[in-house]
Amino acid sequence: LPRWPPIVPLVGDAIALATGRSLLQLINVDLWVLGVAPGPLFLTWYLGLRRRYVSATLVGGATLGYLVLTTDASNVITLLGVVGGIVAVGVGDVDRRGDALAAAEPLAVLLALIIVVSAFVPFVYGGTGTAAGLSGFQGGGGGASTVEASLVSAGSQIGIQGNISLSPEVRFRVESDRPQYWRIDSYNRYTGDGWVRTGSTHDYGGGQLDAPAGETRTLTQRYEVVDELGVAPAAWQPVSLSGAPVSAARVSDEGGFAVQGSLAPGTNYTVESRVPLADPSTLRSAGTDYPEAVSDRYTTIPSSTPDRLAERTARITANADNPYDTARVIEQWLANNREYSLDVERPEGDIADAFLFEMDAGYCTYFATTMVTMLRSQDVPARFVVGYTEGQRVDRDEYVVRGYDAHAWVEVYFPDVGWVRFDPTPAGPRQAAEGESLAEAREQNRTDIDTNDSTGGEWTPTETATPAPLTPPAEQGGGGPVRTITPPDNPVPEGIDRTAPNGSGPEATTLGDVSVPGEGGDSDGGIDWPSREEATLVGIAVFGIVIGIRRLGLLGRVYRAIWLRYQPSADSETDTERAFERLEYLLERRYRPREPGETPRQYLADIGADERARTVVAIHERARYAGQVTREEADEAMSLVDELVAS
């Protein structure tokens, strides 16, 4: 017998979404939308065609309100929906009453007022005043001022932004016998302007988590929280957690630890991780036999991503014949051909496409986003990862990690190995910016930027015989922090100079047809065009403003004000006639209109006009009835009226 699809999960998802969870966090969001969206869409059109405008607006408004609750409706979409609802009700009312379309003019003025107020008047949200604006990704981190806040504190959604700063405050200490990136979590769904982690979290409950499929080594880390943390960093791949956070620990579908609430200063916990040990030769031979779940989740990019991104990536990686070399070439190309800068303007449209074709510089979020998107365009599974770099080494196995160590990097999946780290962000400039931030904070005598053993600089071991490499090159990532370890194998395909300066990386040495920003190529010139939604709102606002100006007679008023105050010179008779007209208009506004049959002299006597007005009238009478007026008299009349206007 046929079975109905289970209703309980759908209801559960609906409730979870209404409490603030984004639609994008659903793993099978396409199926969910396909099953739910046709209902309200059909009802809205059906009721509208039957001229039941209020009912149609209620259905559409309820759907929009639901999307607002899930945080999936941006400011622009929400405002456009509100405007559309008002138009439907207002125009529908005019239609039912059989009025002329001109009866809807007040509605156009109201819509313009709503749009202008929504765009520019501050509103209170969460205790702070901010302008609503007409743009902005609705994910976490969208209003953050530091790299750390935009990445580590972003939750399940990351919004990529523009100018940003570094925070030098000490966050935690780590005791570990090997330096690692202290990972928070990863994100699998790229939206074009941000990242979303789909799926859910589950209670940790103690015990062992799954380890990578390939060869690994055990790495134990002991963490001490120095400043309040809302996350639980851990080296990849964590398999167990012990200490104070266990009771509140949760595990995401991406394998990262999360905590309910926050970790107070002084909290200690221990993580055991299984670090992949695959060397470059193993990764090159890993093949492309990806599990279906991995391919479905980590190779998709938005359908709106321009084709030129995949085309350029294919040219850049033309010499790479396996996913590992593809990843290393992209990693090195980005590090060589883009500058590191915190002072950037957030581009419109797809972030990865803009960074590849239009931008010259960015910070880790831009580098990692672009590398993941480029890899996925070549069907290589990759994901966006956030956490902290190793921090300042203060002893042989101790590290002090600050806010500016917050970082974004890339993980690439290899069959029978697992996820391997790559970092396309140039290490030298990033570390220089971090050093400047710390030096400036120390000059200000801040007390939250150092521990007892972090003021003496980076710890360096006593010079001894060169030890065996501790971290395989595949794990280090070519763009990561500067190491004292020399990779035993060149990870970049033969024929590509990995030490080439910016502008002479793999693409420049082997692919002369590809250009960088500022040198032509596929760039569109960097013009920031508004989106269709923004253009629609601007068009409605302009139309409403024009209607309002016409109904209020503002154009006529402005014209009369200019006409009254400015008189260009012509011939004497014309100048005298116009000076009289200006005087008459001025006196009408200040006193009363001249009655029919009332002579100018009678009018001036009745209102008690001063001698200047009488002189202008006398000059006007000579010009009209005697047909004679000199240039001096005309100039005098104009000057006297100017004085009366100004008085």
Written description of the protein model:
- The protein has 647 residues and is an alpha+beta fold.
- The protein has three domains: 7-131, no CATH class; 147-510, C8orf32 fold; 554-646, no CATH class.
- It has a six-stranded antiparallel β-sheet, with no helix packed on it.
- A hairpin with a 3-residue loop joins strand 20 (406-414) and strand 21 (418-422).
- It starts with 6 loop residues before the first helix and ends with a helix.
In short:
The protein is an alpha+beta fold and 647 residues long.
The total of beta strands comes to 21
- Number of DSSP helical runs: 22
- CATH fold-level label of the largest domain: C8orf32 fold
Give start-end ranges of low-pLDDT stretches: 1-5, 123-142, 465-527
Q: What count of domains describes the coordinates?
A: 3
